[in-house]
Amino acid sequence: MPDLILSGVSKSFGSTRAVEPTDLTFAEGQLTALLGPSGCGKTTLLRMIAGLEDPTRGTIRLGDADITALPAHKRKFGMVFQSFALFPHYTVRENVAYSLTIGGMAKPAALEKAQSLLETVQLSGFGDRRIGELSGGQRQRVAIARALAQEPKVFLLDEPMSALDAKLREEMQVELRLLQQRLKITTIVVTHDQREAMTMADTIVVMSNGRVEQVAPPRDIYHKPANAFVADFIGKANFFDGVYQKGGVKIGNHAVDIPANFAPGSPVRLAIRPESACIVTEPGQNCIAAEISFVRDLGPVKEYHLKSDIGPLIVEYAGTDGVQRVAGDKALVHLPVGALRVYPRVAA
Amino acid sequence: MTIADDIGMRADRGLDSSKGINAKAVLYGVLTTIMVVFCILPFILVIVISFGQKVDGAGWVWAFTLANYQRFFVGLLWPDEVTFLYLQQLGYSFYFAIIASVLAVLTALPFTLLLTRLRRSTQAVWLVFILASLSMSEVFIVMGWDILLSNNSGLPKLFEVTGLTQWLKDVGWFQTLRDMGLANPRNVKFKPSSFATILTMSYLVWPYAVILLYPALSRLDPSLSEAARTMGASRWTVTRTVTLPSIRLPLLGTTLLLFVFLLGSYVSVSVFATPDKQTTAVAIYSNIRGSNMDAPFGSAQAVILLISASICLYFGHLLNNKAEAR
Q1: Among residues B28, B47, B74, which one ends one of the domains?
Q2: Residue B13: exposed, middle, or buried by beta-carbon count in 10 A (0-12, 13-18, 19+)?
Q3: What 3-state DSSP class applies to B16?
Q4: Do B230 and A87 touch (CB under 8 A)?
Q5: Distance from CA of B121 to the nearest CA of A (A)
Q6: How close, in Å, is residue B118 to chain A by CA atoms?
Q7: Cβ-Cβ contacts under 8 Å, A89 against chain B
Q8: Of A289, A295, A342, A287, nearest to A314 (Cα)?
Q9: Same domain for B12 and B126?
Q10: pLDDT tens digit string along A125-157?
Q11: Confidence tier at B305 by pLDDT (50, 70, 90)
């Protein structure tokens, strides 16, 4: 199956620009997550790929074929909707067989194939049930089986887990990922849940205000966020506003050593993940004096909320460091140079 | 506060609550009286009168005879001769009501679907306009169509002036219209005809069809049809396999309601239908208010029309239950 390539694709609704001109390549057989907050344009982008919205500008190609003007029913990209959009007037098996029967396959053969797809999604005994008789997780599996029945070149999922409870969501994320890896089908998942994106995706596309902020594998997105938005949106981060000086960032009266390519005097934002910062006993480079204001034991991690001269910050420890600290204790927080990121500070 | 005061206050409260009960009882009494006087009593009177007896050359007298019902089913001349004139009239009532209600629903459906896809503000304007059109009486609407379809000033004249009549003659379709009773040797002629009757009856209930279908169609989940499209369904396939099955209950309900409403349609039929295709509603009027002065038989016809409508509604209810059970 060929790559899906978006070139300069944008979408406007009246005077509102929902998606800024976007260039993206969805590699064949890979799972890509479109991740961003509500209203960032990720669903609109997915709907343009599915053919449910016409791009205002740009082209969409599947390999060499330009499919920009191809209507949705001719693209036949399997799609799972946020509400699952299962047909209530059909049984589970008829829902799965829908694309096959309207495509001209004889009904007995279509129902037989639907049954085998239901087995794939572990719903073999549910074929004769009505949609109203299924739980949320079962409905989602039916929606996946139905979308896969037509053997689509591209598989699209619009917030597929949002209707499920937290435990089921985690299970389904793993199941969906395993299924995708088994079928090796090019898959695009829209989600606002970073955990979901990190669990399932080969590549994450982070979007904000209709723009693509970063395209990278999950690990890079987390450890090397391209900008402050990505650093803030993916995981937790401590932010400190300062001014860049040669070799470091000046925050108030403190200087934090970090080499970066900024002109001296540039307003910058310094970021560090809570688990990258650590509490130390000996002073050293980039050590900030602080006072613990709150301690939260979350089981696998212990979270320290601190007040410091450069601003409030959070430090996370996985397991235990063997020292019992309580609110009111003085502490030295070390910000390792390798874990610090510096971004230009833009006006909100 | 002394015990005596307390007892006094409780007594006052008891008085207040008894006043409340009295007011409630009066309200229920008034409502029940209104229901009995304006709804149940006339209905009972019609049933009682249907067993009355016509006096030749005069009015009618109270009696208990089944002759009126017998006359409806086997004709006035029974047992010498059996005629089905009144059953035929009932048949035409059903004929016009079924076709007109189905036509109204079929034409209102695509319009209402389009309406639900418009912006909310535009939808509101259309709905207000449609609701306003409901205020027009049947007489007013029929008068408008009467003028529109009249041979000298309406559509036939337009056909003649624009050369459409001549074109129909040239292509050979004029004879087909003549065979259907929609043309005389010179020009097209729309009334009196079943065509004009059905058209007017459909027009009459069309706003009701839109209003009744609108809630169901506006609640229709657009992602259902989008899902079907992504699975390769063309627009027509989506309509056939997703949209229509999803709204089959409101469609059935609307059609039944319009059908029952049209069973009693009087003005459209009396103006546009040919004399051989008059309906029970027209016959009822002739008997009760017209020259026949046969209120007992008119009442019997009304009762039979009512029972027929009830049977239809019952079957509709059964169908509805069956569909819901699926």
Answers
A1: B74
A2: exposed
A3: helix
A4: no
A5: 17
A6: 15
A7: 245-246, 248, 326
A8: A295
A9: no
A10: 999 999 999 998 899 999 999 999 998 999 999
A11: very high
B135 is a domain residue: yes
How many domains does chain A divide into? 2
Tokens 């009549």 -> residue? B165
Domain identity same for A81 and A177: yes
Task: List the single best residue of B117, B224, B230, B238 to mutate versus A (max A Cβ within 10 A).
Answer: B230
CB contact under 8 A, A81 and B226: yes
CA–CA distances in Å: residue A343 to residues A144, A148, A230, A339? 40, 42, 11, 13
Compute CA B244 distance to the chain's CA centroid, rounded to the nearest angstrom: 23
Q: Which tens digits make up the pLDDT trace of B205-255?
A: 999 999 999 999 999 999 999 999 999 999 999 999 999 998 988 999 999
Q: What share of chain A is helix, strand, coil (3-state, %, to 5)?
A: 30, 35, 35
How much is the average pLDDT of B101-125? 95
- Report whether pLDDT(A87) > 60: yes
Number of domains in chain B: 2
Query: What CA–CA distances, in Å, run from B55 to A254, B61, B292?
Result: 115, 7, 11
Question: ipTM of the assembly?
Answer: 0.83
Greater confidence (B79 vs A50) lies with A50
Q: A305 by DSSP, 3-state: which?
A: strand
Give the mean model confidence (pLDDT) for residues A84-111. 94
- In this structure, are B56 and B146 located in the same domain? no
**Domain ranges, residue B250:** 85-150+191-325
What residues are paired with A61 via a beta bridge?
A5, A66
Quick one: pLDDT at residue B15? Answer: 55
> Do B142 and B227 lie in a common domain?
yes
Cβ-contact B295, B288 below 8 angstroms: yes
Instruction: Clarify whether residues B37 and B125 are in a common domain.
Output: no
Final residue of a structural domain among B20, B54, B74: B74
Query: Mean pLDDT of all residues in chain B?
Result: 89
What mean pLDDT comes out for the span A18-36?
A: 95
State mean pLDDT over A167-174.
Answer: 84
The answer to whether the Cβ–Cβ distance between A147 and B246 falls below 8 Å is: no
- The answer to whether residues B57 and B98 belong to one domain is no
What share of chain A in percent tops pLDDT 70?
98
* Contacting residues of A for B230, CB less than 8 Å apart: 50-52, 72-73, 75-79, 147, 156
| pLDDT one-digit tens code per residue, B73-93 | 999 888 889 999 999 999 999
B241, two tokens: 């396999």
The two tokens of residue A137 are: 């997780």
CATH number for the domain harbouring residue B222? 1.10.3720.10
Query: How many whole angstroms separate alpha carbon A175 and alpha carbon B93?
Result: 61
| Nearest alpha carbon to residue A30 among A179, A218, A137, A188 | A188
Residues B250 and B297 grouped into a single domain: yes
- For the cut 90, the answer to whether the pLDDT of residue A168 exceeds it is no
